[in-house]
């Protein structure tokens, strides 16, 4: 008999002065993910309703979540923020939902995409039982899901773009200092995209002499 696991460990930083609001937003995200009926069974034993719990002690909702949602408030760790993890039964949709809500409503971070990754593993080396995936969370909270297949497809598209630019002469720097395609020097944006594609693929851009 083999056991399957979903493993994750990710930290999303939140400034200390925004942490209290972020905890409440995270708690609401958990409720949105789980459905209020499940949490009423957990939390309504003392007669408090979910609205009251969310207002008075949102940490209680995080503590009852089916994976670790630990708040780092600076008392024991240098960074403040949220640690989301589990060594057996991580729930990617829950983790992504919490971070998405925080990014959209409390703290966007560095305005770069934030990536949540997880691993699918097995206690025995069975074929097809290992893998994983990722969720890309944009500053506005938009979530894009992917895995190895998504990465391979995206890489092929980037390579096709770069190959096309290379086949038409590569890029050149115009009089204003912009990197532009040799085949269409008015298309400044395409030159920038080409350079980004080459960087992502780990290949050198083909730059023609500007004479």
Q: Can you offer a commentary on this structure?
A:
The protein is an alpha+beta fold and 211 residues long. The chain has two domains: 4-146, no CATH class; 151-201, no CATH class. It is 40% helix and 22% strand. The protein has seven helices and eight strands. The protein has helices at 19-34, 36-43, 50-56, 58-63, 92-105, 148-167, 188-201, and strands spanning 4-13, 68-72, 81-86, 114-122, 131-137, 143-146, 171-173, 179-181. The strands form two sheets. Strands 2-3-1-4-5-6 form a six-stranded antiparallel beta sheet. A two-stranded antiparallel sheet has the order 7-8. It starts with a strand and ends in a 10-residue tail after the last helix.
How would you summarize the topology of this molecule?
Blueprint (H helix, E strand, L loop, with lengths): L3 E10 L5 H16 L1 H8 L6 H7 L1 H6 L4 E5 L8 E6 L5 H14 L8 E9 L8 E7 L5 E4 L1 H20 L3 E3 L5 E3 L6 H14 L10
Antiparallel strand pairs: 1-3, 1-4, 2-3, 4-5, 5-6, 7-8
Helix pairs in contact: 1-5, 6-7
